[in-house]
Amino acid sequence: MGFFEEVYKAVKQIPKGKVATYGDIARAVGSPRASRQVGWALHCNPEFGVIPCHRVIFSNGSVCTGFAFGGKEVQKAMLEEEGVEVSEDFKIDLKKYRWRGEE
């Protein structure tokens, strides 16, 4: 299985109402220094709606400013629909919503 497929498999495991960072996904697929490549894989998401790329955010809790499927407002709305609180400045409390893979 290639890197992009591993990323997609990992991202599919993030449950509704939770988020992970690009770095979390990079570590989950065994490439801890590949967070930018994770971003590229998600930008190329071949199954939007199946692979929940909107649940992947920056390490500071911010949604992606260049969300490939409609911008940060769309990502914010999608997360809020799942019960994730997103602040007015597009940040998420990682202590509350971060998924670590053990759920």
Draw up the topology in text:
Elements lengths: L2 H10 L7 E2 H7 L6 H9 L12 E2 L14 H10 L12 H4 L6
Helix pairs in contact: 2-3
Task: Please sum up the structure shown.
This protein is mostly helical and about 100 residues long.
Question: Can you characterise this structure?
Answer:
- The chain is mainly alpha-helical and 103 residues long.
- The chain has one domain: Winged helix-like DNA-binding domain superfamily/Winged helix DNA-binding domain (Arc Repressor Mutant, subunit A, Orthogonal Bundle), CATH 1.10.10.10.
- The chain has five helices and two strands, in the order H-E-H-H-E-H-H.
- A two-stranded parallel ribbon has the order 1-2.
- The longest helix has 10 residues.
- The chain is globular.
- The model has no long low-confidence stretch (mean pLDDT 93).
Q: How is the biggest beta sheet arranged?
A: 2 strands, parallel
CATH homologous superfamily name?
A: Winged helix-like DNA-binding domain superfamily/Winged helix DNA-binding domain
CATH topology type:
Arc Repressor Mutant, subunit A
The count of strands amounts to 2
Name some characteristics of this structure.
103 residues; mainly alpha; Arc Repressor Mutant, subunit A; two-stranded parallel ribbon; 5 helices; 2 strands; globular
